[in-house]
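Hey, can you fold this?
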Amino acid sequence: MKEFVINDDNLTYEEIEMKVVRVKALILNSRGSILLAFNNNTYQFPGGHVDENEEIDECMKREIKEEVGIDVEINEDPFLSIETYDNNYFGTGKKVLNTIYYYRIFTDLEPDFSKTKYDQLEMKTDFDLFYVDFSNLESFLVSKIDSNQIDPKIAREMLHVVKEYNKIYGGNI
């Protein structure tokens, strides 16, 4: 697994007040598309927070079930992790070490909204899913940056993930 660290705030590990672990999925299909989520006024890869004492593979399965409404098997380890040191985590003022593990998931199953289980924020902010042609994903994200339709930090993360994915897998789905 490739590991990457972002520490724009130049925090030390000792300064960290809280640790957050999350998982995100690049859900790809045989048509060459990737499934994206739109929530809280930004685009992102589906995923979420790892619960206490939960294994990251189990969390990934749970999050896909909750957000996409499908059951998947986790057949690969994460291909990438990004650790971000944040001096003001989502405006809370807390110094947080946020680790996200990225998975590559292949499935031709379509989202089943009758089986999703969204949390209050996801319901309040109109959580939605849609496909983008994977070969156009970078230009799609850049267009959303240019039109202020994506959080800049999330956009930076997503573009980095796509570049690393392409390096690791040669751009192949």
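Oh, and this one too while you're at it.
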Amino acid sequence: MTISAADVKALREETGAGMMDCKKALVDTDGDVQAAKQLLREKGLAAVGKRAERAATEGLVEARVSDDGRRGVMVELSCETDFVAKGERFGTLAATVADKVFEYGSGAEVEGELASEIEKLVEDAAVDLREKIELRDSAAYDAKDGVVVAYLHRAGGWAKKGVLVEVDGADPGALEPVAYELAMHIQFARPEFLTRDEVSASLLDEERSIAEAKARNEGKPEDIVPKIAEGAVAKLYKERVLVEQAYIKDEKKTIARWLEDTVPGAEIRRFAIFEVGSGADGPDPA
């Protein structure tokens, strides 16, 4: 018999089991929904649904970069407990997911066939480990005229923080160590934007408004309130925009100046920052 997508969706919503497992259960039971539910429970797959609302705040970050440094991917796989995150089964899963994303090619979105493959891997592990597991985030870059570098911040052998960065405009051999230094800076300084053009007008207005209110509450003269507000905006750029941040190894230079002095003509194209339990993406290239 034909199993409709609607039937699979309905069973999945009721049991919390994976899409592929729901479809197989319906096929195996000739479309009998109650029998399919029982089959999923017997296999332990429906139990995953009971964990659906739990917080998956632990996990690992994994990355893969091609030998020529042109392509790179990074993934964040989350779970519920630190115990599971540090286990061999979960570590193998994180590595396999990173491999799968890399195999599909940098720039590939985790959708379609790739999403189905990863979903099946994750669901099997969730059943084995009896925890909520999910692919929380992924990034895939393909450098046309430069390099992609990954930096994983490891503690005790496990990486819970990572940076993926693409830098263009120079010979890959000369650029790679500089890009790695940049990735380390990004991990430490946690920029939110690449350039000031990516900062929204609403965020700037909010910073100005807060600074103006604070200045007035402190009794500052009204004629200097606008200057204080613009000072707050300048501080935002300096602290949260990558190219305007002070380089951690030479705070007299901005990242833009340090990069130009080190590798003239080099350009930061994009970056991603992953941190287990939070996570933040850098901007996409124009």
